[in-house]
C-alpha cells in the first residue's frame, strides 16, 4: 500500500512539473509586451529613403586645394517603389557643397544650385554627369589626387542620410559659367573652377 501511495505521489509531482513547464513555455511565446510590435510587423516597417538608395560608378574630378572646387558624378539609384529626393550633400574637406544643375539661357549654358534637389523615380535612376546635374564641392581644404577616394554624405527629404565613396579621377572639361554668383572671373572673362568639374 505504501508503495502504491509513493508511486501516486511521484506521478502527481511529475504531472505538476509538466504543467508548470507548459505554462512557462506559453508565457514565453505569448502575446508581445505592450508597446512592442511582432517580428513580422517590424520586418514590414517603412524603410527610409536612404535605405533605398545606392550609387553606380561614383567619381569625383581630381583638383588641387588651390583650384578650390570640383564635382561629384555617378548614377543615383532608387530601389524602392516610391520616389526619393536627395536634398543636400557634404564632404569633410569642403567648406561648402551644393546640388547643381545646368540651365540653358539663350546660347549660353550656366550652372546654378538646383532647387528641390535631385528626385529619383521609383525603381529608377538619376544621372549626375559633367555639363548636367552634379554635386558641386567648393572651398576645398586639401588636394584630391587621382587614385584616391572621397567619402560623400547625402541627405534625403525624410532626413535620412547615406554615405558613398567616390573614386578621384582626372577629367579635362570645357569651361562653363555660373548663373549669379560664382568663382572669380579668369582673365579671359570666363569663370574658373567650374569646368565640367
Mind sketching the topology for me?
Blueprint: H1 2-28, H2 39-43, E1 53-61, E2 70-78, E3 84-91, E4 94-105, E5 108-113, E6 118-120, E7 125-128, E8 134-140, E9 149-156, E10 161-169, E11 177-178
Parallel strand pairs: 1-10, 5-11
Antiparallel strand pairs: 1-2, 2-7, 2-8, 3-6, 3-9, 4-5, 4-8, 9-10
Description:
The chain has 197 residues and is an alpha+beta fold. The chain has two domains: 2-43; 50-178, PCu(A)C copper chaperone (Immunoglobulin-like, Sandwich). The protein contains two helices and eleven strands. A hairpin with an 8-residue loop joins strand 1 (53-61) and strand 2 (70-78). The longest helix is centred in the N-terminal third of the chain and has 27 residues, at 2-28. It is globular, with a radius of gyration of 30 Å. The relative contact order is 0.19. Mean pLDDT is 76; it is low at 23-44 and 174-193.
Characteristic key phrases:
single chain; 197 residues; alpha+beta; Immunoglobulin-like; eleven-stranded mixed β-sheet
Compact overview of the structure:
The chain has 197 residues and is of the alpha+beta class. It has two helices and eleven strands.
Largest sheet: 11 strands, mixed
Question: For the terminal residues, how far apart are their CA atoms?
Answer: 100 Å
Overall CATH architecture of the largest domain: Sandwich
Please give the radius of gyration in angstroms. Answer: 30 Å
Ranges with pLDDT <50 over ≥5 residues?
A: 23-44, 174-193
Instruction: Give the class from helix and strand content and strand pairing.
Output: alpha+beta
Give helix and strand order, one letter per element, not per position.
Answer: HHEEEEEEEEEEE
Average per-residue pLDDT, rounded, comes to 76
The CATH homologous superfamily of the largest domain is named PCu(A)C copper chaperone
Task: Give the overall shape, derived from the CA principal axes.
Answer: globular
The number of helices is 2
Oligomeric form: single chain
Total domain modules: 2
> Roughly how much helix do the residues carry, as a percent range?
10-25%
- Percentage of β-strand residues: 35-45%
DSSP summary, beta strand count: 11
- For the record, the CATH class of the largest domain is Mainly Beta
CATH topology of the largest domain: Immunoglobulin-like
Amino acid at each position: 500500500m505504501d508503495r502504491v501511495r509513493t508511486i501516486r505521489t511521484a506521478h502527481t509531482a511529475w504531472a505538476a512539473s509538466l504543467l508548470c513547464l507548459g505554462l512557462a513555455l506559453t508565457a514565453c511565446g505569448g502575446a508581445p509586451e505592450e508597446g512592442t510590435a511582432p517580428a513580422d510587423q517590424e520586418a514590414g516597417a517603412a524603410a527610409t529613403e536612404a535605405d533605398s538608395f545606392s550609387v553606380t560608378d561614383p567619381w569625383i574630378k581630381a583638383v588641387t586645394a588651390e583650384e578650390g572646387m570640383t564635382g561629384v558624378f555617378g548614377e543615383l539609384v532608387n530601389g524602392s517603389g516610391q520616389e526619393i529626393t536627395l536634398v543636400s550633400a557634404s564632404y569633410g574637406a569642403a567648406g561648402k557643397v551644393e546640388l547643381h544643375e545646368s540651365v540653358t539661357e539663350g546660347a549660353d549654358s550656366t550652372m546654378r544650385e538646383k532647387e528641390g534637389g535631385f528626385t529619383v523615380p521609383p525603381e529608377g535612376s538619376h544621372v549626375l554627369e559633367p555639363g548636367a546635374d552634379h554635386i558641386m564641392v567648393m572651398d576645398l581644404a586639401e588636394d584630391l589626387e587621382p587614385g584616391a577616394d572621397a567619402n560623400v554624405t547625402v541627405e534625403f527629404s525624410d532626413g535620412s542620410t547615406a554615405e558613398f565613396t567616390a573614386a578621384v579621377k582626372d577629367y579635362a572639361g570645357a569651361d562653363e559659367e555660373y548663373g549669379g554668383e560664382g568663382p572669380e572671373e579668369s582673365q579671359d572673362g570666363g569663370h574658373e573652377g567650374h569646368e565640367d568639374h
